[in-house]
Amino acid sequence: MSWLRQTIAVLLLNLRTIPSRLGSSMVAIIGIAGVVIVFVSVLSISAGFSAAMSGAGSRERALILRQGSDTEMTSGLEGMETRILKDAPGIRHEGGTPLVSAELYVIVDLPKKTTGTTANVPMRGIEPAAVKVRDEASIVQGRMFQFGSNEIVVGLGANRQFQNLNVGDTLVTGQNRWQVVGVFETDGSVSETEIWCDVQTLQSVYRRVNSFSLMLAKLDSPNSLETLEAWTAKNPQVKVDVHRESEYYASRSRIMTGLVNGLGFGIATLMAIGAVFGAVLTMYTAVASRAREIATLRALGFNSLSVVVSVLAESIVLGGIGGVIGALGAYAAFDGFQTSTMNFQTFSQVAFAFRVTPTLFITGLIYALAIGLIGGLLPAVRAARLPISKALREL
Amino acid sequence: MRYLPLIWSNVWRRRIRTTFTLLSIFIAFLLFGIVMAVRSAFSLGIEVAGIDRLVLINKVTLIMPLPISYKQKIESTPGVEAVTHENWFNGAYQDDTNVLTTMAVDPQSFLNIYKEIKLDPAQVKQWLSDRQGIIVGKDIAARYGWKIGDRIPLRSSIYQPKDPWEFNISGIYDADTGFDKTQLFLRYDYLDENWTNPQKGLIGWYVVKISDPSRAAELGQTFDTMFANSGTETKTTTEKGFIEGFAKQVGDIGAITVAIASTVLFMFGLVAASTMVQSVRERTSELAVLKTLGFSDIKILVLVLLESLFITVVGGGFGLAVAWLFVQRGDPTGGYLPVWSLPRADVLAGIGLMILMGLIAGVLPAFGAMRLRITDALRRT
């Protein structure tokens, strides 16, 4: 195992001399840190977005939309249909009443705090059963609104992102005035971007008497979806599609996350190629400035493999340092960063927080180590091939 | 000019180093170009939005309709040249989730206002004579292989009862760069006639062409007051402001892209700077010899700066050119970024940044070289 001892000895020598080559080492470290920062922070956007979207969906809930409708907003159900659907099998009952809420989903224009320009904020008219259907919802400030009034409760995300949505504020949409009486949360999911009110009040305000957008039902068990689906398919009085809520929300975030991930990976890959070039330069400089040292070691009998491995290891260490700096930087700057965006698939705002997940952190680090490894290859081979006599003569 | 061979041989003094530095700068400006195209894509064609066009929407939200009866009142307001209206049709093609940008418009007034749409006169005539006619953008026609005369089915989750609706392609339009060429425009009269709705004559929003852009704010105010106490209030903005507001709904993509571009340029600028520092340091004695031969301090300064400029401009120029070629190939996402181009302003900014980067990277070593005292420099070796 003498080559191992040799390698370790050379590696330690390399690492101890890094401070004397700080300038060129910094180039590699900063380059690699830059790649990792951009990679991790861009991907933390889509991680946060999809967490907000998929967190909203439960496998135990069914979303009933009009046949062929792609979103809650473009769907429409008549009052008659909703009454028939409430008797459908597969829906859980509590105290004799079905846990199902017929809802009206609209958007209202509200100014964003950050830009001052208006954005499409979803407003959902709900029935009393809705809070039992969504058992993760809880009021964190103020109280729940009174059914039959013009009171509203707003989600925590909406409260943070848009103006005039604090308890006690009056929200004006067109000629209507709404009183904000409470703030609710739903474990950080997309519902927190919404404003909730009584469906009947919303119907009269929007002149859509007895018309709904969708129904949300709590299922007896996750498997009852098939029962419900089969029943609606056979019943000629209703023309609806039944979606499992979790699948619906996951599919509504696909375009956005696909786009952001694609951009993130694309940009990070190109940057990584650039950073490899930067690392190659750094390591060539390192090898060149230590040519005499390396030649001396080889003349003393250190074999070339240990020289190769030690140069590679130095390059990987630089990559690792850059990677940790980059990943920590992205974490410090962006993890939990609150923002909101428009989901084009639903035409509504989604408030969410950037998430630097452990997976992203580790992926970033792997990127960094790979850049270091690839960047070190050519210079390492060069170091090993350096003719001893020539290197010793070079001054 | 006669110093070119000298600069050239200096640049290639260490072939490997120069090659990798050039490659780094190449990547930096390739990225810069692509990131800027992304930024322009997310601004949704703001560069071509008309400042002489106003958009009137329902005050509550864009998705609530306005009555068509407003058209006459708007038209008769002094300062208004033309009025048209659009409805978002939400047409899905092949698959319910594949929603295309489909609008129902009044053909004559629409083409009148949107002069940037280039449509063959024969195709215009065809569209005007066929109520089921639809015109489609060049890019979307290419994507689905549509030809004039084709019949296309579109499902709309907003407009019932036809399922699907069917349209005949009357024309395929081209347009100025920056204008979305993936849109479809069908005829409003056909939609309104066949749509089962308790109320006829509902439109999505009005587009108003005004004669004097400087009066935009004032006219907008006039319209909003005009309809203030009617059943449906309006909100008027310039088309530019409308698109800008819409783009801002997505978030501050501008800030994110600028942050990425700055990180990239800083990162690779550092590579160039470190290369220059090393390259000059190695040549200390050579520079001293040049000075001994009578080269003035300024000449030495310029020589080093030119060398550094050579690297950033050649590497960056190739990078930007490749980015431009990449963008010309069309939207890489296959349709999610309909306005996909590299704006001229960003190309110019890129060229400016290359020169700036070259100067910054070269300035310290160049001054060092200029101040070099011959005796010291020669003694050092």
Short account of what is shown:
The complex is a heterodimer of chains A (395) and B (381). Chain A has 395 residues and is α+β, with helices and mostly antiparallel strands. Chain A has 13 helices and 16 strands.
Characterization of this structure:
The complex is a heterodimer of chains A (395) and B (381). In chain A, strands 1, 5, 6, 7, 8, 9, 10, 11, 13 and 14 form a ten-stranded mixed sheet that branches. A two-stranded antiparallel ribbon of chain A has the order 2-12. Chain A has a two-stranded antiparallel sheet with strand order 3-4. In chain A, α1 packs across α11, α2 (22-56) runs antiparallel to α12 and α9 runs parallel beside α12 (358-385). Chain A folds into two domains: 2-54 and 254-393, no CATH class; 68-238, no CATH class. Chain A has helices spanning 2-17, 22-56, 79-86, 130-133, 156-161, 199-205, 224-234, 245-252, 254-289, 291-300, 304-334, 358-385, 388-393, and strands at residues 61-66, 77-78, 93-94, 97-98, 100-111, 118-126, 138-142, 151-155, 170-173, 176-185, 195-198, 211-212, 214-218, 240-244, 338-343, 348-353. With 395 residues, chain A is of the alpha+beta class. The mean pLDDT of chain A is 89. Chain A is 52% helix and 22% strand. By secondary structure, chain B is an alpha+beta fold. Chain B is built from 14 helices and 13 strands. In chain B, β8 (151-156) and β9 form a beta hairpin. Classes of the chains: A alpha+beta (395), B alpha+beta (381).
Mean residue pLDDT of chain A: 89
Helix content of chain B: 40-55%
Order of helices and strands of chain A: HHEEHEEEEHEEHEEEHEEHEHHHHEEHH
How can the largest sheet of chain B be summarized? 11 strands, mixed
Helical segment count of chain A: 13
Bin the helical content of chain A. Answer: 40-55%
Spans where pLDDT lies below 50 across 5 or more residues of chain A: none
Q: End-to-end span of chain B in angstroms?
A: 31 Å
